[in-house]
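Case study: CRISPR-associated endonuclease Cas1.
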Amino acid sequence: MSEVFVEGFGVSVGKKSERLVVKRKGEVIFERPFFEVERVIVCTEGATVSSSAVHECVKNGIPVEFLSYSGKPYASLVSPNLGGTVKTRRAQLLSYEDARGVMLGRAFALGKLRSSANNLKYYAKYRKSADRAAYDFVYRRVDGIEALARQTEDIEGEKVGEVRGALLNVEGRAANLYWEGVRRIVPEFPGREGRGASDLVNSLLNYGYGILYNRVLSAVTRAGLDPFAGYVHTDRPGKPSLVLDLIEEFRAPVVDRAILGALGMGFKVGMDGEYLDEKTRKLAAARVRERLAVRVTHRGKKQTLENIVHAQARSVASFVRDGTPYKPFVGSW
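Here is what the predicted structure looks like once written out:
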């Protein structure tokens, strides 16, 4: 199965017989049977996608995703028949008002904190001999994050609205510690900045998060969950709060590990004005996709990180619907 990444101006995506065809200025640059295509990602405003290609994609369960030049997802096309059962969505909505919402919110936060701590351990272990001061600096941040994780375990309430402030507080404090550690390891990193970032490191991270976001959105939708009904992130029109909750388990072990690792190996970054240039976007996307294809041990067996994203979404559905215990994913180091 392959992922079709559409970049550049003058590109068209169409259907010919049972094949997906990508052309640039009338010349075929990619052609593949639909049954061999996993997803289509359009990362340019200068492309056209035919209705026949869209129809064939949704018929075959192939998501068509759209990213801005900064990596922000702005649309995703999926089949309306992939949404699972009404029972799951009813249970999801009801869980917001009882202890299930608290348990999920706490689990998402614990996954984020423990994965962040493990990421810093991963970066620090290569500096223990070469730069002891950096190693000690990073491990003080690790200790701080792990202490906050222990505090998170003790957060209790009858419904998630009662504990949201406490969860966001520990997440925010842990994030400050985490990015302090990253800044010591990546000297050119100015500190974390989300929307509107113009520096190279944050631009790469934001672009990678955009790719991951679409993976989580696809997983949540396929699990039969409502992506807009989350727990820790508040409900707002057009805000897929459940996606933003679940993605926290995967930012550090997927995107941060891929992007910061690439920078550590001399990854060359180019900018086109305030955005990453086309070559850099392609390379960054390739790094994130490679990371998603890495196999790690999860629930006693080797699985790709991409499959684990889907497994976690299904676990959320099983928890709210059937009461099956939910355990957050924690990246290893």
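For the exam, be able to explain this: The first strand starts at residue 2 and ends at 6.
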